[in-house]
Amino acid sequence: NGYPKEDLVESLPGQPKVGFRQYAGYVDVDLKNGRSLFYYFVEAVKDPDHMPLTLWLNGGPGCSSIGGGAFTELGPFYPKGDGRGLRRNSKSWNRASNLLFVESPAGVGWSYSNTTSDYDCGDDSTARDMLTFMLKWYEKFPEFKSRDLFLTGESYAGHYIPQFAVVLLDHNAHSTGFKFNIKGVAIGNPLLKLDRDIPATYEFFWSHGMISDEIGLAIMNDCNFEDYTYPSPHNATDSCNNAIEEANSIVGDYINNYDVILDVCY
Amino acid sequence: CMSYERRFYFNLPEVQKALHANRTKLPYSWSMCSNVLNYSNDDGNINMLPLLKRIIQNHIPVWIFSGDQDSVVPLLGSRTLVRELAHDLHFNVTVPYGAWFHKHQVGGWVTEYGNILTFATVRGAAHMVPYAQPSRALHLFSSFVRNRRLPNT
């Protein structure tokens, strides 16, 4: 089927036997600077030749799509308890789609650049590199060029994915040849707009009984998040700052903010 | 505790070899989040709603989903932002806010605007939705790629 034989992953150490194929390797996005992105591709369990392609990016910025997405969340395997093997994820999303995970931008996971200044990056350069990545990845997997493409991710992928989607749309608008066949965008717990997402944290603490009425109301009444810009401290009153400090202290270190009812892993 | 197991596994030389990874022998070990990036702090402030609007105007369905146990980017903010986006696009509610079901249990709550913009929660899920609720997450994803609504019965 024209897939790159050199990227075929025959079997991962300690991996249970499976019926689908996996590929992994590098795609050079800038030969001059030596910038290269690492990918991991998993075929769908059934009928991979007709299933769509889904790209998944994790958040951060700068966190691993392969470590987080593929091997912890929605990929076909989880690490075993001793860290020396893999166990099957029976609810892997490759039951519904072919899956593509990319370490992006360069500097994440095994993606790298030979030019130090490439590690000074941001949303714009990440999206442009991802466009180059996809065009070159399709050269490795030409069969997918016409396949339905879904763009997905979580957290800071709320930035990565929409900006990447718009870069692809711009490409489509200017291309007389190949066009990306984007069929959907799905993002989970996405950072979309900081001045709304930040106060939501304290509303969540308050509405879930994690902070008192007094502190919750103080934050909601005394803090103005509309002009919030990270990393500058926003123009807040002493009452607001004190309430936020107290809220964070009450929630404490024994609560995992990413999953507030999760037990601590000692 | 999977983060410890994952870090151990990915730093095994035989795993990197099997994955054709680390071909340049990087001077640091694999870690979940990068220690070498100098990512622009300012970019976190960019408002994504205009971009989502443009994506939708290109007739591409957008789903925003939220694990309801996450306090870092909680559903309370995402839900409001999706509603504001729908308002900006002059969309009507096409699926009124209500529960969706998975295996005879409530999988979460969902609403849809303009037949193209969906907001859904995943009950009992955290920031990493597919990790915390694998079965419900797969149901949501399957519905998304098949362009089907989440079941309300």
Describe the structure in your own words.
The complex is a heterodimer of chains A (266) and B (153). Chain A is α/β, with parallel strands linked by helices and 266 residues long. Chain A has helices at residues 65-73, 123-140, 157-174, 194-207, 213-222, 238-251, and strands at 8-9, 22-30, 35-42, 53-57, 77-79, 86-88, 98-102, 112-113, 120-121, 149-154, 182-188. In chain A, strands 1, 2, 3, 4, 7, 8, 10 and 11 form an eight-stranded mixed sheet that branches. In chain A, helix 2 packs across helix 3 (157-174), helix 4 runs antiparallel to helix 5 (213-222) and helix 5 runs antiparallel to helix 6. Chain A is globular, with a radius of gyration of 21 Å. In chain A, 48% of the residues are buried. In chain B, strand 3 (93-102) and strand 4 (105-113) form a beta hairpin. Helices cover 35% and strands 22% of the residues of chain B. Chain B is globular. In chain B, strands 2-5-4-3 form a four-stranded mixed sheet, sandwiched between helices. The mean pLDDT of chain B is 97. Chain B has six helices and five strands; from the N terminus they run H-H-E-H-E-H-E-E-E-H-H. Chain B has helices spanning 2-10, 13-18, 49-57, 75-88, 129-132, 134-145; strands spanning 38-39, 62-67, 93-102, 105-113, 117-122. Chain B has 153 residues and is of the alpha+beta class. At the A-B interface, strand 2, helix 1, strand 9, strand 10 and helix 3 of A face helix 1, helix 2, strand 1, helix 3 and strand 2 of B. Strand 9 of chain A pairs parallel with strand 1 of chain B, so a sheet runs across the interface.
